[in-house]
Every structure is written in structure tokens, then in C-alpha cells.
């Protein structure tokens, strides 16, 4: 089962990188550190990831895939119900973001100075923007949402989620974020739903 | 006029620090770099600021004071009108945040590992939270807003603003952010206003 063993090694390297990045930061973590934590050779590391940046991008992709899977799983009868029930995902997003926050911040920092990193950082925003734009369009088609500019309404949802996650991670005890997220979406729905 | 000269020196040091932080980053900028850029002695620097961190905090305070002044200046007849007209401030906030973003990101990064920095970072969120909570409470008193949990509604406004500023700074050409901000607030008001 060499295929399966390769997958396990890759996963172990990713877990090790996530732990090192969280503790020491992205910049301060070397490929050697990751290899030591994972218990793999440098050869094995480079077999799976050409660079340290590649492993960061893989971690981000996994995180986004996890959110995508969650969002697809909570489809309800109508779009307003779907949007409300999506706020149940936020505690999981908060928890996963907390581990990754220092890493994200370092990457945003690099993004502000490096075009390649910037493109990788901005892609998920645009991805979620498209996702919610389509969902809101569906809501208007099914007649559950008032006529609205779906791009703008999607922007509101994404901005609200970004703002909630950022504040929730920075200030976990500043509010009951799960309740805040649900009630925030409810307020938004009062304006959007028919 | 020693008082006035002292103020000028202080301002020159702050401007120099802002420029160096934006170009090279907070961590990579030394007090020597700031003094060289400002054309002042190290003695003059330490007369005004005990540490490099103190100058960052002063820059943040100035930025917040600028936003506060702007928010007080746009009070309209009713609370919904006030909230809508506040979105006109966002382009200025975007522009000022763009210069400061790398510095903020480095500071958030430090905040995630250092309690003192964290408290300085979290204060403005709580400040704006209080401000909007009071404004929304006023709106219910004057009868222009529906009965709502003012803490939660304030959280929605702050989260939306944080999310818009972050995305606007990271992806300036991803949307017409001024229009998006105004229309986002309008959608929110559809749910909040009577």
C-alpha cells in the first residue's frame, strides 16, 4: 500500500507544519523544524511539497474544503433557512481559525508585499463571494428572498462572516459568538427574506 | 514656543514611524531607523516615546480618534440616516488602513502571543461596539428602529465594517467598496428600521 503510506506521510507533514506554525510562527519555522516534528526525512518532505509556502497553501485549501463540505451539508428547504443554519458552522470555523490565525496573519503580511501570496489569499474570498451570490440568486428564484443585488447581498454575508471570525478569534470572551452569529444572520434575513 | 516645537517633533516622529512601518514592517524597523527618517536624535525620540510599541499605540489612537471625529460629524436627523451616512467615511478609513495594514497585521500577530498587545488591539473593537450599541439604543428610543437586542445589532454593524475594511484593503479592485458599503448598510437597515 505505498499509495496509502504516501498519503499518511503527507498528512503527518501537514499536521506537523500546522503545529509548528501555530507555536513559532510561519517565518520562524524551517523545513527542518517541520521534518523533525513529523519524524520524516527532508527527502520525504520535498517529495510532497516543493516549498514551505506550498504546505501553507495546502493547509489553507484543506481548511476551505472543510468549510465547503460543511456549507454543502446544511442545505435546507429554503435559502433563508440555509443561511441561518450555516451560522452553526461558525464555532467550528472559529476553533480551526484560532490554530491558524498567527499563520494567516503572517501570510496576509506577506500578501501585502508579494503578488503570488496575495493571489492565494484573495482566492477564498472570491470563492465564498461566488458561492453566496449564487445561493442568494437561488433564493430570489424560489421566491424566498426579496429582489436584491445578489453580488452586494453576498458581500454583506461574506463581510459579516469575516468580521465575526476575526473578532471571535481575537476576542473569544468578548461575546457569545455562536449566539451573535445566529442573531446577526437573523437581523440580516429580516431585511432580505420575503 | 517650546511646547509647539515639541508637538511638531512628536508629529514628525510619528509620521516617520508610520512610513518606516509601512515600508519595512514593524518588527524590522528599529528606533534608529525612525530617528534617521525623522531627522531627530534618539534622546528626542525617547523624550516622546518610551518604546517602539508606544509609538505604534499612538498611531493607532490617532487613527481611531480620526474615525471618532468623523462618526460624530455625520450625525443626521434619525439613527438610520446616521448609519447610512457613516458609510461615506469608509473610503477614508480604507485609505488610512491601507498604509497601516502591514503594521496592524504584525501587531495582531504579536497580540496572539502577548497579553499587553492583545489588550491594546481589542480595545477599539469594544469601543466601537459600545458606540453603535448606544446609537442603536437611541434609534429605538426615537422610534426609528424596530425593537432589537442593541448589543447584537451593534455587533452586526462592527463585524460588517471590519469585514469590509479587511476585504477592501486586501482586494481593492475586487469590488466597488464604497458602493458595496452603502448598499450593505441599506440591506441591514431594511431589517432594522421601522
Secondary structure topology:
Two copies of one chain form a homodimer.
Chain A: H1 2-24, H2 31-38, H3 42-48, H4 52-73, H5 79-86, H6 90-111, H7 115-142, H8 150-170, H9 177-192
Characterization of this structure:
Two copies of one chain form a homodimer. Helices cover 80% and strands 0% of the residues of chain A. Chain A contains nine helices and no strands. Chain A is mainly alpha-helical and 194 residues long. In chain A, helix 1 packs across helix 2 (31-38) and helix 6 (90-111) packs antiparallel against helix 7 (115-142). The relative contact order of chain A is 0.10. At the A-B interface, helix 6, helix 7, helix 8 and helix 9 of A face helix 6, helix 7, helix 8 and helix 9 of B.
The counted number of beta strands of chain A is 0
Oligomeric composition of the shown chains? homodimer
Outline type of chain A:
elongated
Portion of residues in beta strands of chain A equals under 5%
Order of helices and strands of chain A: HHHHHHHHH
Number of helices of chain A: 9
Q: What proportion of the residues of chain A is helical, as a percent range?
A: over 70%
Structural class determined from secondary elements of chain A: mainly alpha
Instruction: Give the CA-CA distance, first to last residue of chain A.
Output: 55 Å
Q: Uncertain regions of chain A: pLDDT < 50 for 5+ in a row?
A: none
Estimated radius of gyration of chain A: 19 Å
Largest sheet of chain A: none
Mean of residue pLDDT of chain A? 87
The most extensive contact between chains is: A-B, 47 and 47 residues
Amino acid at each position: 500500500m505505498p499509495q496509502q503510506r504516501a498519503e499518511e506521510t503527507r498528512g503527518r507533514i501537514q499536521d506537523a507544519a500546522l503545529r509548528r506554525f501555530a507555536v513559532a510562527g510561519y517565518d520562524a519555522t524551517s523545513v527542518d523544524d517541520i521534518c523533525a516534528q513529523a519524524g520524516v526525512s527532508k527527502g520525504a518532505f520535498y517529495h510532497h511539497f516543493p516549498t514551505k509556502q506550498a504546505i501553507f497553501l495546502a493547509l489553507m485549501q484543506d481548511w476551505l474544503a472543510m468549510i465547503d463540505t460543511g456549507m454543502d451539508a446544511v442545505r435546507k428547504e429554503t435559502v433563508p433557512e440555509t443561511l441561518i443554519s450555516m451560522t452553526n458552522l461558525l464555532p467550528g470555523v472559529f476553533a480551526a481559525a484560532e490554530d491558524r490565525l498567527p499563520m494567516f496573519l503572517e501570510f496576509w503580511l506577506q500578501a501585502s508585499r508579494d503578488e503570488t501570496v496575495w493571489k492565494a489569499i484573495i482566492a477564498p474570498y472570491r470563492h465564498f463571494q461566488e458561492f453566496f451570490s449564487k445561493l442568494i440568486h437561488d433564493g430570489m428564484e424560489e421566491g424566498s428572498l426579496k429582489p436584491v443585488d445578489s453580488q452586494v447581498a453576498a458581500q454583506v454575508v461574506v463581510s459579516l462572516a469575516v468580521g465575526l471570525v476575526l473578532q471571535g478569534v481575537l476576542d473569544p470572551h468578548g461575546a457569545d459568538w455562536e449566539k451573535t452569529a445566529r442573531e446577526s444572520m437573523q437581523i440580516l434575513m429580516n431585511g432580505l427574506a420575503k
